[in-house]
Model the fold of this input.
Amino acid sequence: MKLHAKACFARLWIMLLFTSLSMVTVSAVASAVQIGDEYDNDHRYLGGIAFYVDGTGMHGLVAAKSDFQDLMSWGNAKLACENLVSNSYSDWFLPNKEQLNQLYKLRSVVGGFSGITYWSSSENGADNAWMQFFYNGYQLQGNKASDSRVRAVRAF
Done:
């Protein structure tokens, strides 16, 4: 009888442990940011639209809701992003080649893109940097003095 009580008590603790773990997991998933979100679950505005979220759902990248009005050279594009203050955030930057490609893949979720080229921060020599054609996804090198579209991003 004594062994039976210990085994029953142990099973109860194990069931309680698994129930608690599943509640924590559901809670963590419920508070995760998802692609397309503009707010986190604490109702804090992310400053734009989430287009990349890591496995925890707590960190990722947000794109500004619109391009800069003007076409810009690469140097001006970097400066414009670094100096941008939008929706109370001042930590914007020009996306690198890989981030820009992710943004291209989710362009329909973020919205507001034109079908021409966008600058990335990734350089390819002293005079060139990578850009992406948002019509077909093709990445190409562009002369840094050329003008192109710009979309700022920020990390959360």
User: Anything to note?
Assistant: Residues 21-29 have pLDDT under 50 and may be disordered.
